[in-house]
């Protein structure tokens, strides 16, 4: 394929590709509601119907739906060693997203086992550079963990920055973030990474030179770090800040995370646009318990459960874009329906989601977002999949409290059979020795070994029928 193709040729090729693969756009009517996969009309298919927000600093017209590039589709490596990015599938997703109004793409050096930036760069560089915005990150927390400080950390961080430009096939970055602030040891780690090393001074000069158009940071923990960074706003002028905002974390954040209501309000006071991550809370808000799903479906039968979370995040006017890691075409299509155009939540719907959040936090789920910062485990344990299976079974009612629970046999079988199918036995929780190498890297502050041991005890009790 030619490196650059014009819009007419691109749309022709896209249409041909869709007819070959059998893909159809999930239909949306003018209110943004689903009308079925075979609909001939769609609110997501017309140019200009995507909801956009204007960056007050640059005037950028940014799609409210942003593409999070942390979870690109993978396929088996032809040489038999592990997996590689399915570049053809990535290209198709990027093409479809661009054709339907999405223009913000967020990646980072460690995403997809270090493969995301290159895959994203290959897909995007086939289109005119002014048709999309690239966001990537200074992820030097990985370097600082290895003990790098001062000049060593500065040099390695600059190499990371230049590698990002090369892999993304661009000579400037639209949005650049100081990545994962607030985790690890809070303020001391922040100072080590960006202030004592001189890395922030370098990035400010890059913004002045125009190679970084917007400079911001992503916040993942200690609120003292968040407040400190905002205290520098008059001097540094943050162009945007990325926060975790969804209808659970808005007022009921867990672990080190702080309530998004406070974070968002502090950004609003300073007129700093917010970029939203984890609108689905790691997928947990895509499917709830049968009771909660039923309540949302009764209110809006044609809307997906996930669309409620995306509408919540998009309703706030200070939000520039809402990131979604869309691995599959059906996820992309559903989100396009939600934001083409956005139908903001009304007060009654906001209240219903607050009630939903209150009920959700009463369940003993694991607040894992599948970011994989805990991976790889030195003992081969697949931590995110274990937690995902447990949470899924909890939502489906397949985590029985005792052998006297209703449908105990069915729930027991569903959990155990699903566990073996989802997680190979050598990668299950029973192999955790409690080394605790994973826990310090978790943005959600999950006590990972404790949770793995809890789940393993539950599994053993199910097997022995002693629950």
The biggest beta sheet is recorded as:
8 strands, parallel, barrel
* Structural class estimated from helices and strands: alpha/beta
Count the beta strands.
Answer: 14
Shape, principal axes of CA atoms: globular
Q: Per DSSP, what share of the residues sits in E-state strands of 2 or more residues?
A: 5-15%
Q: Quote the average pLDDT.
A: 88
How is the largest sheet built, in terms of strand order? 5-8-9-10-11-12-13-14
Q: Oligomeric status of the shown chains?
A: single chain
What proportion of the residues is helical, as a percent range?
A: 40-55%
Give the low-confidence spans.
Answer: 1-27, 29-33, 35-48
Radius of gyration, in angstroms, nearest whole number: 22 Å
Distance between the termini: 59 Å
Number of helices: 19
Keywords:
single chain, 467 residues, alpha/beta, eight-stranded parallel β-barrel, globular, disordered N terminus
Task: Summarize the topology.
Layout: H1 7-21, E1 27-28, E2 34-36, E3 52-54, E4 61-63, E5 65-68, E6 74-76, E7 83-85, H2 87-99, E8 104-106, H3 111-114, H4 116-124, E9 133-138, H5 141-145, H6 150-167, E10 173-181, H7 187-195, H8 199-209, E11 212-219, H9 223-231, H10 233-236, E12 240-244, H11 249-252, H12 260-269, E13 274-277, H13 290-299, H14 305-315, E14 319-324, H15 329-339, H16 347-360, H17 383-395, H18 408-422, H19 448-464
Parallel strand pairs: 5-8, 5-14, 8-9, 9-10, 10-11, 11-12, 12-13, 13-14
Antiparallel strand pairs: 1-2, 3-4, 6-7
Question: How is this structure best described in words?
Answer:
The chain is an alpha/beta fold. The protein is built from 19 helices and 14 strands. The protein has an eight-stranded parallel β-barrel with strand order 5-8-9-10-11-12-13-14, surrounded by five helices. Strands 1-2 form a two-stranded antiparallel ribbon. Helix 1 (7-21) packs across helix 2 and helix 17 runs antiparallel to helix 18 (408-422). The N and C termini lie far apart (59 Å). Residues 1-27, 29-33 and 35-48 have low confidence and may be disordered.
């Amino acid at each position: 394929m030619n490196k650059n193709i014009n819009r007419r040729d691109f749309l022709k090729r896209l249409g041909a590709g869709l007819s070959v693969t059998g893909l159809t756009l999930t239909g949306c009517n003018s209110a943004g509601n689903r009308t079925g996969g075979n609909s001939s009309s769609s609110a997501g298919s017309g140019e200009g119907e995507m909801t956009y927000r204007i960056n007050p600093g640059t005037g950028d017209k940014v799609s409210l739906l942003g593409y999070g590039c942390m979870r690109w589709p993978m396929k088996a490596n032809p040489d038999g060693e592990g997996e590689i990015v399915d570049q053809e599938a990535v290209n198709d997703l990027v093409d479809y997203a661009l054709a339907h109004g999405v223009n913000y793409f967020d990646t980072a050096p460690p995403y997809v086992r270090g493969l995301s930036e290159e895959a994203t760069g290959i897909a995007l560089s086939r289109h005119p550079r002014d048709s999309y915005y690239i966001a990537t990150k200074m992820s030097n927390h990985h370097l600082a963990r290895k003990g790098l400080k001062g000049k060593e950390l500065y040099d390695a961080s600059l190499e990371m920055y230049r590698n990002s430009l090369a892999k993304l096939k661009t000579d400037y970055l639209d949005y650049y973030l100081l990545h994962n602030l607030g985790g690890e040891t809070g303020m001391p780690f922040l100072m080590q990474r960006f202030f004592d090393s001189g890395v922030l001074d370098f990035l400010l000069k890059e913004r002045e030179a125009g190679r970084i158009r917007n400079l911001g940071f992503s916040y993942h923990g200690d609120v003292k770090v968040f407040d400190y960074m905002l205290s520098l706003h008059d001097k540094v002028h943050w162009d945007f800040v990325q926060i975790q905002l969804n209808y659970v974390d808005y007022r009921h954040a867990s672990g080190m995370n702080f309530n998004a209501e406070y974070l968002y309000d502090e950004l609003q006071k300073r007129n700093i646009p917010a970029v939203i991550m984890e609108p689905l809370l790691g997928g947990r808000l895509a499917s709830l318990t049968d009771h909660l799903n039923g309540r949302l479906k009764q209110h809006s039968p044609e809307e997906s459960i996930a669309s409620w979370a995306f509408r919540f995040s998009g309703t706030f006017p200070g939000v520039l874009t809402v990131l979604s890691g869309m691995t599959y075409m059906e996820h992309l299509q559903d989100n396009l329906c939600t934001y083409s155009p956005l139908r903001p939540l009304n007060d009654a719907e906001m209240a219903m989601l607050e009630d939903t959040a209150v009920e959700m936090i009463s369940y003993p789920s694991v607040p894992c977002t599948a970011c994989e910062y805990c991976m790889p485990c030195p003992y081969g344990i697949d931590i995110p999949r274990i937690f995902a299976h447990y949470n899924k079974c909890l939502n489906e009612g397949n985590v029985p409290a005792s052998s006297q629970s209703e449908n105990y046999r069915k729930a027991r079988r569903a959990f155990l059979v699903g566990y073996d199918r989802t997680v190979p036995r050598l990668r299950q929780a029973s192999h955790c020795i409690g080394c605790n190498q994973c826990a310090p890297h978790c943005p959600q502050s999950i006590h990972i070994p404790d949770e793995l041991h809890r789940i393993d005890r539950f599994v053993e009790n199910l097997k022995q029928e002693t629950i």
